[in-house]
Amino acid sequence: MASAVKAPLYTIEVLRLAGSLPGPRELDRVDGSAQLRSPTCGSTVQTAVTLDHGRVIEISQEVRACAFGQAAAALVANHAAGRNRQEVAAVLAALSAWLDGSSDEAVAWGFAALEPARARTARHGAILLPLRALLAAIEAAA
Predict the structure, then answer these.
(1) N or C terminus: which one in the chain shows less Cβ crowding within 10 Å?
(2) Which of 68, 81, 76, 88 is nearest to 22 (CA)?
(3) Is residue 59 within a helix (H) or strand (E), and if so which, with residue range?
(4) What radius of gyration, in Å, describes the C-alpha atoms of the chain?
(5) Between the CA atoms of 126, 118, 83 and 74, what dihedral angle is there, to the nearest 10 degrees?
(6) What are 37's strand-pairing partners?
(7) Stated pTM of the model
């Protein structure tokens, strides 16, 4: 994996995803919210959700993170609708395993686009943060 560290960090795909992150918006109804901070890098994500029978129907995120954190938040914004707590927890577990190298299985929701960060553990906290905040917001609604 040493050669992966020398690969370009911010690919066009990572930057495209980061640039596509929608800004925070006011939800008609907030069922759960959470604000989390990564102790590794200082990134913060504030997430609010509206749920229907435990499934996300609307999400709003305020993200202060590097391009990887922003790209991860954009993927979460694109894929959160219709998901429940168990589905989000499963994606979070799979992404964690993929990032730390304990699994090479394909990661759902397009997180494979963040491949350049796998060898850079300092970026993992920012990547996991949007999913952790979504999970915490869903759990806060319960």
Answers:
(1) N
(2) 76
(3) strand 55-64
(4) 14
(5) 50
(6) 44
(7) 0.93
Please report the sign of the dihedral spanned by the C-alpha atoms of residue 74, residue 78, residue 101, residue 37: positive
Nearest to 142 by CA among 84, 76, 74, 72: 84
CA dihedral 53, 70, 94, 116 (to 10 degrees): 160
Structure tokens at 44: 């913060």
What are the tokens at 113?
A: 């686009």
Q: Which two tokens stand for residue 32?
A: 């759960």
The phi and psi torsions of 21 (rounded to 5 degrees) equal -65, 120
List, for residues 8-38, the tens digit of each pLDDT value: 788 999 999 999 999 999 999 999 999 999 9
DSSP conformation class of 108: G
Query: Measured between alpha carbons, how far is 41 from 126 in angstroms, rounded to an integer?
Result: 7
Neighbours of 87 (CB within 10 A): 16
Q: How far is CA 20 from the centre of its chain?
A: 14
Please choose, from the candidates 59, 65, 64, the residue with its C-alpha nearest in 3D space to the C-alpha of residue 25: 59
